[in-house]
Amino acid sequence: MNAPKDASPAVAIVGTGQIGAVHVECARRAGATVVGLVGSSPDRARAKATTWGIPVVYSDLEELLEQPDIDAVHIASPNHVHASQAIAVANAGKHVICEKPMA
Question: Could you tell me the domains of the chain?
Answer without folding.
Answer: 13-98 (3.40.50.720)
